[in-house]
TrEMBL record:
Domain AAA: start-end pairs: 3-177
Pfam families found in the cross-reference section: AAA_31
Protein family according to the UniProt entry: Belongs to the ParA family.
PANTHER family attached to this UniProt entry: P-LOOP CONTAINING NUCLEOSIDE TRIPHOSPHATE HYDROLASE, PARA FAMILY PROTEIN CT_582
Domain of life: Bacteria
Subunit structure: Dimerizes in the presence of ATP but not ADP; ATP-binding is required for double-stranded (ds)DNA-binding. Interacts with DnaA.
Signal sequence region: none
Reaction catalysis annotation: ATP + H2O = ADP + phosphate + H(+)
Stated name of the protein: Sporulation initiation inhibitor protein Soj
Taxon lineage: Bacteria, Bacillati, Bacillota, Clostridia, Christensenellales
Entry-linked InterPro entries: AAA_dom, DNA_Partitioning_ATPase, P-loop_NTPase
């Protein structure tokens, strides 16, 4: 059964999509079969992996709201071993439409059940909210990776997110674990970046997987459209950071 990992943080623009897309591509490059589920109505991962979110017939919306099968909505991507369950524009309304569905917190979990054995990893890119789309992603996940920017208010946001994860664990998914934190857009010349990063590390009592991804211009060019950096500039600092992060993550999984 594939491991389901949700990339969550209700704060916008912290690097969820960048981290999810790049880890998906580098895990796939290691020969593992990967599915990326784009649960973000902004659809940057969908665009970055080569699809138009306005003209696609396949989408996670059809799975969540129209009860279509996940398998019928999955697309192969240009990256070998990486499939996509794409987002589309309608997904923006799904947060409200889900309220009226039976088992509304477990629609994604039920939909992924039949395809889970086809993949080694299923990575879910969450929207910047703690609404029903994120709750669905957390309710079906084995673990969460939290991309977080080392900036003012990062800790307040992290506390709220951890409370929500605890609630989901208590009521919907007892097995949910926090795998780790990825400190994104880290600026080693900024004292604040360093201080906040230290605080974030202290926040967790048990030792978590922590990786720092530096602020990187080449990564911005690729990640603004959700493109994997390995398809854009595989030698830049950002690419090396995400590759190292992925390999360390995979090594931890096999321990
Ligand atoms: N390491 C980095 N260095 C510099 N810029 C980065 C880095 N990682 C991501 N960015 C930029 O930060 C912005 C936000 O990144 P991203 O879209 O991955 O965040 P997000 O949390 O998924 O956003 P949203 O909440 O809107 O879904 C993008 O413009 C991206 O190009």
């Amino acid at each position: 059964m594939g491991k389901i990992v949700s990339f969550s943080n209700q704060k916008g623009g912290v690097g969820k999509t960048t981290t999810c897309v790049n880890m998906a591509a580098y895990i796939a490059a290691e020969g593992k079969k990967v599915l990326l589920v784009d649960m973000d109505p902004q659809g940057n991962a969908t665009t970055g992996l080569g699809f138009s979110k306005s003209s696609l017939e396949q989408s996670i919306y059809s799975v969540l709201i129209d009860d279509e099968k996940a398998l019928e909505n999955i697309m192969p991507t240009e990256v070998e071993n990486l499939d996509l369950l794409p987002s589309n524009i309608d997904l923006a309304g799904a947060e409200v439409e889900l309220v009226y569905k039976k088992n509304r917190e477990r629609v994604l979990k039920n939909a992924l059940e039949e395809i889970r054995s086809r993949y080694d990893y299923i990575l879910i890119d969450c929207p910047p909210s703690l609404g029903l789309l994120t709750i669905n992603a957390l309710a079906c996940a084995d673990s969460v990776i939290i991309p977080i920017q080392s900036e003012y208010y990062a800790l307040e946001g992290l506390s709220q997110l951890m409370n929500s994860i605890s609630l989901v664990k208590q009521h919907l998914n007892a097995g949910l674990e926090v795998d780790g934190v990825v400190l994104t857009m880290y600026d080693s010349r900024s004292l604040i970046s360093k201080q906040i990063a230290e605080e974030i590390k202290k926040f967790f009592t048990k030792r978590l997987f922590e990786i720092v991804v530096p602020r990187n211009v080449r990564l911005v060019e690729a990640s603004s459209y959700g493109k994997p950096i390995m398809m854009h500039d595989p030698k830049c600092t950002g690419a090396r950071a995400y590759k190292a992060l992925t390999l360390e993550y995979l090594a931890r999984q096999s321990k």
